[in-house]
Specification:
The protein has helices at 2-26, 32-40, 124-142, 152-160; strands spanning 28-30, 45-49, 53-57, 61-65, 70-80, 88-101, 106-119, 146-149, 163-171, 174-181. The chain has 185 residues and is of the alpha+beta class. The protein is built from 4 helices and 10 strands. It is elongated. A hairpin with a 2-residue loop joins strand 9 (163-171) and strand 10.
């Protein structure tokens, strides 16, 4: 009788562990709203460009690009400075990939690509100067910016199973963080 009870409990425990592994293998989804909230805390930001312009970026609007495994960020911006007679407003549009940083359990932007940097009513010379600084501005404003940080309580059950974040995919529902085996040390 004890033997049968022990076998039943062992089987139930194994099934529970397998169910936990299956859900961990499917991953952890981070919504666009969660990323928007994380970014909202880091903006607005101001960026001086060579003492000629000062750009103020507002928190971006994010869009998921699952077909390219990237995220798009569109910032509203305002420009003032020595090159401008008045304040100009415009848009800064950037696409980027994502990577996981294990040291602080964060998901960060990298491989930035500037789609557009436009200021309404800007003279052609100033517009050309702004375009030259576009990639630099993208690097300053978004490179390695934290879009989400996994909490210890999120990772504790995963780590207990010997798993760790392995890959990040952009899906229509959000970012999917998949887990894989943690290397033995």
């Amino acid at each position: 009788m004890h033997r049968r009870l022990l076998l039943t409990h062992t089987a139930a425990g194994a099934l529970a562990l397998l169910a936990g592994c299956a859900s961990a293998q499917s991953g952890y989804t981070i919504s666009t709203q969660q990323m928007q909230q994380a970014l909202a805390e880091r903006f607005p930001r101001s960026y001086p460009l060579g003492g000629l312009l000062d750009l103020q970026l507002q928190a971006p609007r994010l869009a998921l690009l699952p077909e390219r495994d990237q995220v798009n960020a569109v910032f509203d911006l305002a420009a003032t400075g020595a090159l401008l007679a008045r304040r100009h407003t415009g848009v800064f549009d950037v696409d980027f990939a994502l990577r996981y940083e294990p040291t602080d359990r964060s998901i960060r932007a990298y491989r930035l690509h500037v789609n557009a940097l436009r200021l309404d009513g800007l003279k052609p010379q100033a517009s050309e100067l702004l375009q030259r600084y576009g990639q630099q501005l993208a690097e300053q404003s978004l490179r390695e910016v934290v879009l989400h940080q996994l909490r210890d309580k999120d990772l504790a059950p995963i780590a207990a199973m010997g798993l760790q974040p392995e890959s990040i995919s952009v899906t229509p529902r959000g970012l999917l963080v998949r887990f894989g085996p943690r290397p033995l040390s």
